[in-house]
Each structure stands twice: as structure tokens, then as C-alpha cells.
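Q: Mind making up any chain with C-alpha cells?
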Amino acid sequence: MNSRLPFDNSNTRLPVDLRVRRIMVIDDDNLSRQIAKRLLEQFHFNAVLEATNGEEALALLKSLDVPVDLLLVDLIMPIMDGFDFIERVRSGERGINPNIPIIVMSGRTDPDSLQRVRKLRVNGFVAKPPQARNFFERIMAALQSAKPAKPSNDPPIRKL
């Protein structure tokens, strides 16, 4: 796929077709969600989902018929913050791929928060407000390193 990106002066051949990738932006701040969504649309993502906290995101992920390819998660949110949300996803919350790529997108850059983020096995960190080139590079690296979902823990269906 050839696409022209907002920060690139030449045509860039992308290793993945972004038009068919689904991304969920999880952030309680509407302006932050809209900035991320606008950048993602400029990067040619057509399917951008939104959630305002971790609890809402978990419910949405479980209700979808198609998988989400990447999560962009803020750390500080009401009801369920990003730390708890990521822990639940990585622990294999029923119906959610524990290997889904996750990028933390936060204004929290203090050493304690960054240390907690490292322990959560995320695929990247982007400081708010995101800069287009860095944001895009982190997203592409996460998408390219994505692992397939682990097999279900449900017992196999036996054919009679």
C-alpha cells in the first residue's frame, strides 16, 4: 500500500495495510481522544474505536465480533485506570487476546509511573501530546511485533 503520511515528503510503502487495522483509544479526556483519533485518521486508519475508561474498554472488547489490533491507553482515568486495565488484559481476561499490542499514551512521565508501565509488558510509550512521527513509529513497531492470540482455555469441542 502506498500512502502519504502527514510528516513524510515522499510516498512511503507501508508493511501493513492500516485501512483494515482496528485501534481502540482509551482515555477519559475527550480532547486527547480526538487528537489521537485525528492523527490515526491521517495515518489512514479507518476503524478507530473509543472508550473513556478501562471498564468501558473491557466491555467493548468483549462485545466485538472482530478483534482489535492495537490499544492506546491512558494511565490516569476514573472507574478503572490504565494500569488496572492493562493488567487485566495481560492476565488473559476472558474473551480478550492477552497478546494484543498496547501503547501507553500518557502525560505521566515520572520515574514511578514509567517503572510500573515497564512491568506491564506494553509495546510502547508515547508522551502526550503525541508528535506525529514518534506516534506513527511506535504504532507501526507494535503492529509489526504483534503475536497471535493464545489458544482458548475452553475444552476442545468433540465431534461425535
